[in-house]
Amino acid sequence: MNNSQEARDGVVTSYKNAPNRTVSAGGVDFAYRELGPKTGVPVVFVTHLAAVLDNWDPRVVDGIATKHRVITFDNRGVGASTGSTPNTIQAMAKDAVTFIRALGLNQVDLLGFSMGGMIAQVIVQDEPRLVRKLILAGTGPAGGEGIKNVTRLSHLDTVRALLTFQDPKQFLFFTRTRNGRRAGKEFLARLKERTASRDKAISLTSYFTQLAAIHRWGLERPHDLSVIHQPTLVANGESDRMVPTTNSTDLARRLPDSELVIYPDAGHGGIFQFHRQFVGKALEFLQR
User: Fold this and answer.
1) Beta pairing class for 21-25 and 28-35
2) Does this model's pTM top 0.90?
3) Which CATH number fits domain 3-287: 3.40.50.1820, 3.30.300.30, 3.50.40.10, 3.90.1140.10?
4) Residue 204 to residues 9, 50, 166, 171: CA-CA distances in angstroms?
5) 231 contacts: CB under 8 Å, gap ≥ 6
6) Helices H, strands E: what count in the chain?
7) What are φ and ψ of residue 198, in 5° steps?
8) Interatomic CA distance for residues 187 and 52, integer angstroms
9) Most buried one in 106, 110, 181, 241, CB count within 10 A?
10) How far apart are alpha carbons 169 and 154 in whole angstroms?
């Protein structure tokens, strides 16, 4: 479907062309985009550390939007959303719920990636009736192994990236194998496909506040995940440096109704490296 046809039919099918919108609630103007069919339970994407609307892989968004209404958003204080970034995952979850309710939604599926997966775990515990199904990618439970090291790794790889004139995500999200390096370059190129109406980059203040929230999450006592009865798909690469892959295994073991997918020769960004396989799996899981 081309741009003019998209406009005529009123259904946006590509993330590249999804207009920037805002909704106001709780004193915050939340920036968001939506696409895909208007019917059914929407899939709300909850994003990672330092990410804004432009950090979602368009192949993943467009793939899921072939069958589902997809909504991406900037949480409070991030990108084009107003307000100041909270310093706990719990407060971020409350803001996300405020945003979801502001759109008049009573039931959603959640796709949480990395920090977004931490936020999604809190949302489903705070508001169990709001969530139908859960996809947790590249993430871990409260108190999970190595999560408190995210700050150190992020700083280290940001320096490595500056010294080699690369994007830190090339190191943080992908393995250093030939496949991993190639997948990283392809992913970063896809993030640049949208050229008009791009989002504002995250501020340094917000980035450091998010790092502090993740650090706190890593030091928390484990939550009782047996209370989460929603069907959950847990996905990761087999060599996640940021949120060690053992956390995905741990999540899948502790969640009562879960399924685990681990991608070979892939890191934190496994769902982007294996976007075709992941989209196929996610669609099958959501429609089951």
Assistant:
1) antiparallel
2) yes
3) 3.40.50.1820
4) 40, 9, 19, 20
5) 133, 134, 257, 258, 259, 285, 288
6) 11, 8
7) -80, 160
8) 15
9) 110
10) 9
Instruction: Determine the distance from the C-alpha atom of residue 51 to the mean position of all C-alpha atoms in its chain, rounded to a whole number.
Output: 9
Rounded to whole angstroms, how far apart are CA atoms 113 and 57? 11
Place of tokens 């719920």: 97
Gap between the Cα atoms of 247 and 259, Å rounded: 14
- Residues making up the chain, counted from first to last: 288
Q: 89-102 vs 115-126: helix axis angle to the nearest 10?
A: 70
DSSP letters along 30-97, please? EEEEEES-SSS--EEEE--TT--GGGS-HHHHHHHHTTS-EEEEPPTTSTT--S---SSHHHHHHHHH
Beta bridge partners of 110: 44, 134
Q: Could you give the 3-state DSSP secondary structure of residue 9?
A: helix
Q: How far apart are CA 239 and CA 70, in angstroms?
A: 28
User: Among 4-18, 72-86, 154-168, 243-257, where is mean pLDDT lowest?
Assistant: 4-18
Q: Which of 103, 84, 126, 89 is nearest to 38 (CA)?
A: 103
- The letter for the amino acid at 219 is L
| Domain ranges (residues) in the chain | 3-287
Check whether 239 has a pLDDT greater than 90.
yes
On whether the CB atoms of residues 85 and 210 are closer than 8 A, the answer is: yes
* 185, 34 Cβ separation under 8 angstroms: no
Q: How confident is the model at residue 4 (pLDDT cuts 50, 70, 90)?
A: very low
